[in-house]
Amino acid sequence: MTVSTSTPRDGVAVVTVDHPPVNALPVRGWYDLAEAVTAAGRDQAVRAVVLTARGRGFNAGVDIKEMQRTEGHEALIGANRGCAAAFAAVYECEVPVVAAVHGHCLGGGIGLVGNADAIVASEDATFGLPELDRGALGAATHLSRMLPPHLMRTLYYTGRTLTARALHRHGAVWELAESADTLLDAALGLAEEIAGKDGYLLRLAKEALNGIDPVDVRRSYRYEQGFTFEANLSGVADRHRNSFVDARAAQGG
């Protein structure tokens, strides 16, 4: 598991996640990501943060294999709290966060980008919440920040995905990059434009915009997670997670 931070341009920090094969993060990974984003935002030389990933996709959510091989509820509780910490870190970062998304953005990935200030995505990016198929709930709070209510609900209930182009039409994606190879440059271009503003005013603006949001995203997401615990206690969550792990094993994944 690797979370790294670099500063390739003046005033811009890039936080990069690299956890092969699909960036499905273990419990420690969510906390590492939260710490990296928070630290980048606290750096007074930084005026914008780009959140990106290496590998086959941006983020595939939690590491379900870790959850299933850990007895008791420790991994479930850790994943829920770790996700909550990472999502909150993006939302509460002291400076604007630009999410640079390629490939798959699923589950916890939606929690990250839904709490970002702007999204730049490559044409190959797809977004979705397959939570019901994994025996869980959550991140509807964040998907609802990206899509109109009825579209969000249909996507949530069906577990389907939407393309970056579709989200661009709905206004959630600011810019489309032709490929994953040009994605970071596009995200850095937007971040650099933001970072050209006064750093003190940007920090005030971020706090002010969060303050006028109609939904408390931290509380709303934790409310959702309560139903994940209920699904787990009922036994239905384990059945779906086991089915997912067995299917992946059969595919050699």
Give a verbal description of the structure.
With 253 residues, the chain is of the alpha/beta class. The protein has a single domain, classed as Alpha-Beta Complex (2-enoyl-CoA Hydratase, Chain A, domain 1), CATH 3.90.226.10. The protein is built from 11 helices and 9 strands. It has helices at 27-42, 64-69, 74-92, 108-114, 140-143, 149-158, 164-169, 180-195, 199-211, 217-234, 236-250; strands at residues 2-9, 12-18, 48-53, 97-101, 104-106, 118-122, 126-128, 161-163, 175-177. The strands form 2 sheets. A 6-stranded mixed beta sheet has the order 1-2-3-4-6-9, with helices on both faces. A hairpin with a 2-residue loop joins strand 1 (2-9) and strand 2. Helix 1 packs parallel to helix 3 (74-92), helix 3 runs parallel beside helix 4 and helix 3 runs antiparallel to helix 10 (217-234). The longest helix has 19 residues, at 74-92. The protein is globular. The mean pLDDT is 94. It comes from Streptomyces diacarni. GO terms for molecular function: lyase activity. Pfam families: ECH_1. This is Enoyl-CoA hydratase family protein. Belongs to the enoyl-CoA hydratase/isomerase family.
Quick recap of the structure?
By secondary structure, the chain is an alpha/beta fold. The chain has eleven helices and nine strands. The longest helix has 19 residues.
Write the layout of secondary structure elements.
Layout: E1 2-9, E2 12-18, H1 27-42, E3 48-53, H2 64-69, H3 74-92, E4 97-101, E5 104-106, H4 108-114, E6 118-122, E7 126-128, H5 140-143, H6 149-158, E8 161-163, H7 164-169, E9 175-177, H8 180-195, H9 199-211, H10 217-234, H11 236-250
Parallel strand pairs: 2-3, 3-4, 4-6, 5-7, 6-9
Antiparallel strand pairs: 1-2, 7-8
Helix pairs in contact: 1-3, 3-4, 3-10
